[in-house]
Amino acid sequence: MIGKIRISMALGLVVAGSSILVPLQILSMKTGWWPETIILKIWHRMIVRALGMRIHVRGALSDSRPLLVASNHISWTDIMVLGSMVDVKFIARADMEGWPLIGMLSKLQRTVFIERERKRSSGDQASEIASRMAKGDAMVLFAEGSTGDGNMVLPFKSTLFGAASMAISEGAAEQVFIQPLAIVYTRLHGVPLGRRHRPIAAWIGDEDLMPHLKVLMAQGGLDVEVHFGDPVAFSKGSNRKETARLMESQVRDMMRAALADPRPSQ
């Protein structure tokens, strides 16, 4: 019964809020009357509140530009969590563009969609990401190329760091800063999530969105930690594979630290 009440209240908040915020965001994108990220932050914070999430932050988004943020990926909620806190743009799988609600939101925040299986288009996509970074956008790259179950970090794909190399080779920047970021779901209703229950927050593979969304809304009370590491400079002589391994190692260390000693719920 309580779960059904939570779902009804969360859906009511999202529907009512979106009916106001989506037109405002479209107006902002067309006219430039106010920064686009203002409405997006409000929208993301509304979703986070509807889901009953509590966010704990360690570190901060780097002020250095151009900036590529290399993060692990657990669920679509990662985007809501980050978007509620900082001004960033996202790099996402091409198929997300057609998803209900998520696809619409992605377009409204100018997400770059990449087709990882089509090598012909990868150059153009990397060029667009490089251009966006050169213009000052902090771009978030989910470097695993997939979602994990929240218990471990999957190997980072070095090919996804091609945009950093292209930004330099095209003369858009002399160097690109790459910052590691760990997203960790740690508690449910104040109780630490163990290995068995941590996948409650995860959205993996071909799992349908709506059943997963209903579970999150019915449960509520999730704690998520966001850990920002120190950025490293990527320049003309930098090795893409070594950089990917370094980012993966740092994100894994931050995740392990959060799981071993999760912040208390507040």
UniProtKB/TrEMBL annotation:
Localization: Membrane
Molecular function via GO: acyltransferase activity
Any one GO biological process: lipid metabolic process
One GO cellular component, as annotated: membrane
Major location (coarse): membrane
CDD domains from the UniProt entry: LPLAT_AGPAT-like
Residues annotated as domain Phospholipid/glycerol acyltransferase: 67-186
Swiss-Prot/TrEMBL keywords: Acyltransferase, Lipid metabolism, Membrane, Transferase, Transmembrane, Transmembrane helix
Lineage top rank: taxon: Bacteria
InterPro entries given in the database record: Plipid/glycerol_acylTrfase
Designated name of the protein: 1-acyl-sn-glycerol-3-phosphate acyltransferase
Entry annotated with the keyword Electron transport: no
